[in-house]
Every structure is written in structure tokens, then in C-alpha cells.
Design brief:
The chain is globular. It has a five-stranded mixed β-sheet. Helices cover 47% and strands 20% of the residues. It contains five helices and five strands. It is an alpha/beta fold.
């Protein structure tokens, strides 16, 4: 069975005229991939909302304006520049738990539901 698989693989590579993988994983390839990835991540702007956060917004009937979203984006950018990972963002009577690295709002709490809450696993707080 192994012999047959090897033959199929060999014949496929010959049939499709595959080239050698020589150089794949070389330092130059890894460096250029890292540069491309960093560039792509750096270009990615905006903020995402997890399904859980979107659900909280809908259930609690919280509407965020474009201006609110810009404030959140700016706050996440400032937190990122300071090296934050997971942040509590306070804006008006709302609290957001945000994954700064992923630029994603994880959950949203309104003022009514914020009372007596304890927020854990955060490394920073941002007041907008």
C-alpha cells in the first residue's frame, strides 16, 4: 500500500511538472513572508465585533453610530500603541471588552448591566 502511494505521488509530480521545493523555508523566504504579513496586518484598520458582541448589541438594543465606531477604533489603536492585549473600554454608559491584538470587540455591557460586574483577564482600561 505504501509503495502504491509513493508511485502515485511520483507520477503526479512528474505529470504536473512540479518543481523542487528547494529554498522553501529558507531564511529569505521566511523574512519576506514576515514582512508581507506585518504589512498586511498593519494595513488592516477598523474594528470587528464577535458574534457574541453583536448578539449583546442586538438583545440590549444598543445602536452604535459611525462616530462611536471611530471612537472605538481610535481607542483600540491607542491601546495597541501602548502594547495592550485585552482592554476594558469605557464609553458613555457602555463597557466593551476588546481584544486589541485582533481588533475585535468581544462583548458589550450597558450601564444597567454593568453594576456589580468584575472584569478579569484585561491588561488595560481606556476611558473614551
Amino acid at each position: 500500500m505504501i509503495q502504491r502511494t509513493e508511485n502515485v505521488t511520483t507520477s503526479l509530480s512528474q505529470k504536473n511538472n512540479f518543481h523542487s521545493n528547494k529554498g522553501v523555508g529558507s531564511p529569505n523566504t521566511k523574512t519576506s513572508f514576515k514582512k508581507a504579513l506585518k504589512k498586511h496586518i498593519g494595513e488592516r484598520k477598523g474594528i470587528n465585533f464577535s458574534a457574541h458582541a453583536e448578539g449583546r448589541l442586538a438583545v440590549r438594543q444598543i445602536d452604535l453610530s459611525r462616530q462611536d465606531l471611530v471612537k472605538i477604533e481610535n481607542a483600540v489603536e491607542r491601546a495597541s500603541q501602548k502594547g495592550a492585549s485585552e482592554s476594558l473600554l469605557l464609553m458613555d454608559d457602555l463597557a466593551f471588552i476588546v481584544s486589541v491584538k485582533n481588533r475585535t470587540v468581544i462583548t458589550v455591557i450597558d450601564g444597567h448591566n454593568m453594576k456589580d460586574n468584575v472584569f478579569t483577564n484585561i491588561d488595560s482600561a481606556i476611558i473614551v
